């Protein structure tokens, strides 16, 4: 019996649906009437008896009624005359706002037999509103360097009338600098633009005050004015630029007041006051200003009052960014209001019969209509009564239903029926309204699993451990039982080359995602995975979501030096003339880092130098420069150790060694080859003699200086202790050889000095450094020096 009753109920609901669909498509054509707004109460609209082809007595006997879709009693039917009269004054702007034409839908209901006639009342607009500006004064800042022909956007006026009675033109008070240009928009509205006709001069006239007048097209026309205050500023050559020209955001209609909506950002390349940007609404209607507010400094848009999807589905807001110099840019913000199920269904009883004969069948008990102001599934409704009652619901026209007895009733068996009519929508959560009605809906698998997000973004740091839980996707099913049990799976990737099976896996029961192997940011920065969620209904329904996995970079790559090369070959030596001034560019260390972001930010540091304070390294670009003027006392060869460090945590570094040679009065591209220099040295014996004489004089000077120092030390020691002083004997240490009597060089490098001859004049030339020499025993020192003197007249500087 229970199964049979359930099948009967399902058949009844299906029958109601198809009957309603057929009647809605086969209804009579609408009758159209028109009336001007603000027409006095009781004014004649039409004669229904004549239009319907019925007699006045028949209208009265069939209890003819006028039912409006919005349940407002705009019209009154005089059953004595059949005239349709206005029941109250109609305000077109209040009823329809800016919608044109303004149409009020209503039905004429006749009983015995039951008939419906559709009708439409067109409310015509009259010119009863003047154009108004929301701002009493409009401030515009204009640079004196602005060229003629430049246009400036002005705040538009608001006119509640439509058609020819709406806003039609703008004028500006007479002046010698500006005129008004009208700009048409795609929505049919006009906007004023102030056009510069003659150049401004800040010193001559720093401010101008003009009157902007808005005119409508009524007869006689109405107008509204506002003041335009123009401040002439000094030059400003960069206007603000928005990151994008169109911003779009979706906001739930139950978002709390004061909530942050979006941040609008514009950039201005100018500095100082010209680079400071202020944000304002442009062309904003009163509804926009009441609903939203923008921070003039940060560009943050906040909700000022509650949203209502049933009133306004979206807002198009023009936002102007103006810098301190008066230049401005415009962008558009579209705020789409997302409907939530916040309106329960409404039930309106049109007629009700309190007593019916017990032997009557299919008797009309009640006539009612249902309405839900929400949209989509939130506005779809299901109407039902208790089962096992001798009544059924019959859809008649549009959202109208009749409650009819199913069979003859027996008063002795049951004298009173408590009928509960239940109207429920299909939103989430479901809302319902009862007027002596309850609905019972058995579950069918009509809802696919819905993910909490259409796109998930998961972040995992590279070098992760395998089988790491990286995130969870969640899908819910509004059904019940097996229809609501969700199973998760990975769908085939769109990219056939993506090895998805080796990257991630998903737990089929709870939607947890795991990374199967360690990820490398340098090899794979991001990838996308499509996740499916299927219920266990029959047939099963499914949906899918996109999971975007972003691999975060770790500081796992040390800096790599590109120049100078560190490949184990002979070091590259940089030559610096001794005449170089402070800040002279010696060389530049070039390095790269395989990481990204701050992990790839490199800084350079001079870690070690032969002579600290002589060279410096610029921290950001790796340029090696002299820190001061060079002197003759500075060593010839220098070794610099430069540290290259990234900005990661912890930081990684690399080092590079630079070799610098100080040279005198030459340019390396013009150095002669070794064989040419040797030939020139052999060709000019006079030069050889000069070098020998110079070396002898230098040696004599050095010996005299050492003897003088030794004698002074000996005297000081004798005066203190009364004893004598021993003068050092033997040769100087093997790693020092005097070249010019002015200093010594380290044994790290060997240089070849050649004398040229053949022209009668002597030339002293340096050649490029040769391989480093090794220390030799003291016993062979003089022999080695004599041999070098004979071969190339070179000096071994050790």
UniProtKB/TrEMBL annotation:
<keyword id="KW-1133">Transmembrane helix</keyword>
<keyword id="KW-0130">Cell adhesion</keyword>
<keyword id="KW-0472">Membrane</keyword>
<feature type="transmembrane region" description="Helical">
    <location>
        <begin position="688"/>
        <end position="711"/>
    </location>
</feature>
<dbReference type="Pfam" id="PF16492">
    <property type="entry name" value="Cadherin_C_2"/>
</dbReference>
<dbReference type="Pfam" id="PF08266">
    <property type="entry name" value="Cadherin_2"/>
</dbReference>
<keyword id="KW-0812">Transmembrane</keyword>
<protein>
    <submittedName>
        <fullName>Protocadherin beta 14</fullName>
    </submittedName>
</protein>
<keyword id="KW-0732">Signal</keyword>
<feature type="domain" description="Cadherin">
    <location>
        <begin position="576"/>
        <end position="676"/>
    </location>
</feature>
<dbReference type="InterPro" id="IPR002126">
    <property type="entry name" value="Cadherin-like_dom"/>
</dbReference>
<dbReference type="InterPro" id="IPR050174">
    <property type="entry name" value="Protocadherin/Cadherin-CA"/>
</dbReference>
<dbReference type="InterPro" id="IPR013164">
    <property type="entry name" value="Cadherin_N"/>
</dbReference>
<feature type="domain" description="Cadherin">
    <location>
        <begin position="243"/>
        <end position="347"/>
    </location>
</feature>
<keyword id="KW-0106">Calcium</keyword>
<keyword id="KW-0677">Repeat</keyword>
<feature type="domain" description="Cadherin">
    <location>
        <begin position="452"/>
        <end position="561"/>
    </location>
</feature>
<feature type="domain" description="Cadherin">
    <location>
        <begin position="27"/>
        <end position="133"/>
    </location>
</feature>
<keyword id="KW-0325">Glycoprotein</keyword>
<dbReference type="GO" id="GO:0005509">
    <property type="term" value="F:calcium ion binding"/>
</dbReference>
<dbReference type="Pfam" id="PF00028">
    <property type="entry name" value="Cadherin"/>
</dbReference>
<feature type="signal peptide">
    <location>
        <begin position="1"/>
        <end position="26"/>
    </location>
</feature>
<feature type="domain" description="Cadherin">
    <location>
        <begin position="348"/>
        <end position="451"/>
    </location>
</feature>
<dbReference type="GO" id="GO:0005886">
    <property type="term" value="C:plasma membrane"/>
</dbReference>
<dbReference type="InterPro" id="IPR020894">
    <property type="entry name" value="Cadherin_CS"/>
</dbReference>
<dbReference type="GO" id="GO:0007156">
    <property type="term" value="P:homophilic cell adhesion via plasma membrane adhesion molecules"/>
</dbReference>
<dbReference type="InterPro" id="IPR015919">
    <property type="entry name" value="Cadherin-like_sf"/>
</dbReference>
<dbReference type="InterPro" id="IPR032455">
    <property type="entry name" value="Cadherin_C"/>
</dbReference>
<feature type="domain" description="Cadherin">
    <location>
        <begin position="134"/>
        <end position="242"/>
    </location>
</feature>
